[in-house]
Amino acid sequence: MLCRQCEETVVGTGCTKNGVCGKTAEIAEKQDLLIGTLIELAASDHVCIHMGERLSEGLFMTLSNTNFDGERFDNIRNRITKTLGLKDVRVKCITDLDTDDDLRSLKELLLYGLKGLAAYYHHARVLGYTDGSIEKFMRKGLASMVENKTAEELVALNMECGAVGATCLALLDKANTETFGTPGIATVSTGVRDNPAILVTGHDLNDLRQILEQTQGTGIDVYTNGEMLVANSYPELRKYGNLVGNYGGAWYSQREEFESFNGPIVATTNSVLTPKESYKDRLFTTGPAGIPGVEHIGMVDGKKDFSKVIELAKKCQPPTKIDDTELTIGFGHSQVLALADKIVDAVKSGAIRRFVVMAGCDGREKGRTYYREFAESLPKDTVILTAGCAKYRFNKLDLGDIGGIPRVIDAGQCNDCYSLVVIANALAEAFGTDVNGLPLSFNISWYEQKAVLVLLTLLNLGVKNIMLGPRLPAFITPNILKVLVDTFGIKANGDVRTDMVTLNIE
Predict the structure, then answer these.
(1) Which of 153, 102, 171, 95 is nearest to 476 (CA)?
(2) What does the pLDDT look like over 169-217, one tens digit per residue?
(3) Which residues pair with 382 in a beta bridge?
(4) Cα dihedral sign for 389, 392, 393, 395?
């Protein structure tokens, strides 16, 4: 086993015995074999109308903290090999993609970007939105893993992955808004009510909608968790009276929060951990998520039956209160652009001196308190733009507003990073400059492979001087890191005060 795809991986080497995430060496091997099968599929001459589905589903299942169920990996791999008649895979470990360290590093960077792309494309596809160019690139990118490529060719492929990432994020934004309505500014309670309840975590809004539909009139409340928080801003989800608020914070706190929730939990995508025995019998998975010994709810004729979850909820006690505050969300690009004139005037008057993008993933290391400290230390004339679970480090701070403009503008999930791109481009157009000419700094936290795709997208869009942390990827060699630093100005974060000076905030 050698896995170094996430930020928490053992520094310098990667996880070699068991994953920090909790996956075993056996599961790591099954994931590698599945990826090898997908590479063989992509590199083959097979014509398959389900190619996009096979590639996106398979890659998504191998994301960090998504699927720990070895049987699921075997099933999808066997389905592909039997249906398409593929031979035994040649690629058995993703870190054996090339003998040259730098070429292997570039291939790993591309593979993890492809995993992020697959995850975002999966979300759009389940809502009926597809794009042949995205599927074509997934196949091209995977096939390149077993091709002899120069460093220049692999750099170009990584940049192309970023360009396709922008296309995919725009497609997902369209899918979400056309399906669930344009997100609106909303105040979300983090308290609890005295009713039995279901907790929905992950990222899949369509799964949440089906649960809301099936629980209407049952007396069961539905709460969001983690990055599902954004669901409370969509009109087609808010219309359900049994969507009552958000319970808990980022993914790494779920073992304690799921235990105190008392009712059943549905994990829809990534950001699920192997559970404690105290709530394992109340946990369900669906979509790409999977945990051995936990019931999985599959799709039948385009729908999912959550009746077992509902029946269990009726027998459970209401959630135990862990918090009781209110969060203001719903600042997607439509809402922010509606405030564009007000924001531009605030910048011109000096009321807003700088914007800081603090988006990305949260994690469990103690060192991530850095992001809370950074947010608290920002001058009062700065505005934070955020998306993803990174916001849980600071979204409950009372940072106030600037002339009615909140100092924390929450665009939603990591899936909604496209909103931040639209906002930045709109500001650049308003001030007659490019993104790098704006009073805008990037201090981004990363954890897993969707963040890798977002980073490649930002680099492809020409964004420079991004500060990345809390640690730089272990799969990036010193030579490739030098290229990123020299070409794009990538920086590693460190001390709060020093970093503020580096980012021109103080």
Answers:
(1) 102
(2) 999 999 999 999 999 999 999 999 999 999 999 999 999 999 999 999 9
(3) 354
(4) positive
C-alpha 473/C-alpha 469 separation (Å) is: 9
Q: How does strand 354-357 pair with strand 197-201? A: unpaired
Measured over the CA atoms of residue 198, residue 202, residue 207 and residue 210, the dihedral's sign is: positive
Helix ranges (H only) for 390-448 are: 417-430
Residue linked to tokens 């070409």: 487
What values do phi and psi take at 78, rounded to 5?
A: -65, -35
For 205-260, give the secondary structure using H, E and C: HHHHHHHHHHHCCCCCEEEECHHHHHHHHCHHHHCCCCEEEECCCCHHHHHHHHHH
Average pLDDT over residues 79-89: 75
Task: Give the Å distances, CA to CA, from 345 to 137, 342, 352, 421.
Answer: 42, 5, 9, 20
Reported as a single tens digit per residue, the pLDDT across 265-284 is 999 999 999 999 999 999 99
Angstrom distance (rounded) from CA 442 to CA 384: 10
Q: Which residues pair with 33 in a beta bridge?
A: none
* Structure confidence at residue 73 as a pLDDT band (50, 70, 90): very high
CA distance from start to end of the chain: 45
* Residue 302 burial by Cβ neighbours in a 10 Å radius (0-12, 13-18, 19+): exposed
- Locate 431 and state its tokens: 């001030």
Please give the sequence-ordered ranges of beta strands (E in DSSP) within 255-395, or none if there are none: 265-267, 283-286, 295-297, 326-329, 354-357, 382-386
| pLDDT per position as a tens digit, 404-425 | 999 999 999 999 999 999 999 9
Whether 249 has a pLDDT exceeding 70, the answer reads yes
Per-residue pLDDT, 90:
65
Please, what is the Cα angle at 27 between 87 and 273, to 5 degrees? Answer: 140
Count helices and strands in the chain by DSSP H and E runs? 18, 16
Helix/strand/coil for 452: helix
pLDDT digits (tens, 9 = 90+) for 119-149: 999 999 999 999 999 999 999 999 999 999 9
Which residues have C-beta within 8 Å of that of residue 294, sequence separation ≥ 6? 69, 275, 280, 283, 284, 285
Phi and psi angles of residue 47, each rounded to the nearest 5 degrees, phi first: -105, 120
Q: What is the pLDDT of residues 343-391, one digit of tens each?
A: 999 999 999 999 999 999 999 988 899 999 999 999 999 999 999 999 9
Please, are residues 447 and 348 in contact by the beta-carbon 8 Å criterion? no
Listed in sequence order, the residues at least 6 apart from 174 whose beta carbon sits closer than 8 Å to its beta carbon are: 124, 129
